């Protein structure tokens, strides 16, 4: 199986003014594409892995041969993280915070405002490049965390629900060095319907 760059589920300008069209174009067509190409190049050395999905590779990273393991972490993580990120976003101020994710955030993370504060801190304090995450753990509980570079929560046995890319290429054209402004605006474009879908899938995943 050769991994392919997924199409965006919307136009480059769909998320404006939170994320500008030029940033989306470069981020998707250049950065994400590079991770896909590099992942495919790494897997060419081990064709027995080519039928594995990227989630399976990351969840079972210890089974990936050592000569390509870091390349799979970097590029498989980059491919999956970005694929999840695009689907986590929707038109500005159009998605309602509701459903099971609201119930669990209220019960487990102190409500929406506390969640936003915790998630924003994780994003703002991630030194250098990386991601902020809302994840589900094996006990079926929510947690907020961050990862460096393109590391995936799957590497730690967590199930990702929502992510924010805090690499500079994700926001620098519009926000320059103002990462906190980018983080604040992010909550206007969260696709809570998709997060609810991920949550349902994650709860089923941990029952297996």
From TrEMBL:
UniProt keyword annotation of Oxidoreductase present: yes
Any Pfam family: Sod_Fe_C
Cofactor: Mn(2+)
Domain of life: Bacteria
GO molecular function, one term: superoxide dismutase activity
UniProt-listed Enzyme Commission number(s): 1.15.1.1
Every Manganese/iron superoxide dismutase N-terminal domain range: 2-89
PANTHER family assigned to the protein according to its UniProt record, in alphabetical order: 37S RIBOSOMAL PROTEIN S26, MITOCHONDRIAL, SMALL RIBOSOMAL SUBUNIT PROTEIN MS42
Protein name, per record: Superoxide dismutase
